[in-house]
Amino acid sequence: MSASPTCRVTPAPPAPVIFDLDGTLVDSEPNYYEAGRLLLAAHGVPDFSWEHHTRFIGIGTRETLEILRREYGIEASVEELLAGTNRRYLELAWAHTAVFPEMRELVERLSAAGHPLAVASGSSRAAIEAVLAGTGLGALLPTVVSAEEVAHGKPAPDVFLEAARRLGADPADCVVLEDAAPGVLAAHRAGMRCIAVPYVTGTADDPAFAQAGLLFKGGQGEFTARAAYDWLGRRGSATG
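The structure assignment produced for this chain is given below.
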């Protein structure tokens, strides 16, 4: 009797991994809130709250300012508001931006294992580069895409598709890490798998998060580099 063929697992090449920046890799939302609060106060809006700010987490800066400009009837152009926000944010970002420790560990693990890595963010390129330089992550995340460089911000897939193009990767092979519903939708629309770590844990039941392949409903308090890395490693294909 001949032995039945055995099934073996062929290891797949390291998956390209694309990180959102704000709220995913780094806790920059307090800086963005303060920059926005100061900007709006300068334009006659004195009561912009953190709760109001959380509506825009995951949405690009330009899109956020377009909405706020309409809501508050601000006469200044979006370009003027964008320049003012970026100036204030960069001052805060250079002073202090905290990296989520488990995210730093994950980036280091992935880099050491040879995964192609990128950042795709709704922030300006200047803001992204300032944060990456100030936190020491820049050397590990050399490929950067800003929403300024594509036609549409999240939840459109443009930034993720451009990141895949720059990595020379098939979007279907890429994995995105995101903290907000618009980013998870953008990853899904790009045809990419997604690990979701909600920055605002109260939003974890948003239907968009159901598109994620791995969801840490408790946010950064639940997320571990080991769990994410192990999930990424389960990509082998069985061959007979």
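Interim note for the steering committee: The two ends are 18 Å apart (CA to CA). The first strand starts at residue 8 and ends at 10.
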